[in-house]
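Ticket #4471: structure output looks truncated?

Reporter: J.K.
Steps to reproduce: submitted the chain below (297 residues) through the standard prediction queue, then opened the result file.
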Amino acid sequence: MRRPPLKSILASTIVLVTFGLFGRFLATHPAYVDNLLATPLWVVVSIVAVNLIGVGVLAVLYMYTLNLTGHTMARKENFLLTIYSTIANFFGPLQSGPGVRAAYLKTRHKVSLKSYTLATLIYYGFFAIISAAMLGVGTLPWWQTFLGMLAVGAGSYALITFLHKKYAKAAKSLTLSRHLLVGLFLLTLAQLLLIALRYFIELRSIDPSVSVGQALSYTGAANFSLFVSITPDGIGIKEAFLLAAQGIHGIESSTIVAASILDRATYIFTLFLLFLATLALHAKEKLHIRSLEKETD
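Returned output as attached by the reporter:
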């Protein structure tokens, strides 16, 4: 019998420990349970609405990323694939959403994995630079924020340049037009601003004194956790990053925990709505997911 990979064991351990810590916190702080249960309906509706708008932005963003490889697909197909990969990214092991999308594009549209990886790295570079700006813009001096963005930007550029040279043949197929790059940057900015809005609503519902600047710094810290996330939706990893960055965003530990619980609950409800949409639109059949799974086994 084959042993499970070390990453899977580590991810499962982190999830179990995180749920244990959450359970202990709620058991010793019953007031937070009462506050969460008393969360106004408008707060929940607002967060879910922001999440759904974010999925729409993500669908367009994914199309731009695909266009960088010189390929395209029908809008409806792209939207269905975005919903399906979003659900897989949360419930699948080791942040499997990007892998599902890459496998689908390779099988159905003959997109080179190397080309798609390079295109995705450009998106991640924009994601990292904007997140670095968010991390510092709300609470740190402007020059520290600028240096942080410069360092992250230089690191991203160096990595992309290295891989661009290493996979020169795949890189030649990329369409690095100004229109696509500017569009991808603006879409990434819109995506992260929506995430910041979501966090701001959650944090303010728990602690009305949280400022916009603190919420932006909080968002930047949470975003960087995704680069090392090995658990579903970064459970445990994200909270560790947020607690480690307390000296920057200045939000109390109890507020971070309460906001994280609210965030998970509303996000799972959002995914439930997306799941219902996949059933209503017959996404699995239209995307031929079962045949894809057989081909990639």
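Triage note (M.O.): checked the attachment and the full token line is present. The mean pLDDT is 81.
Status: closed, working as intended.
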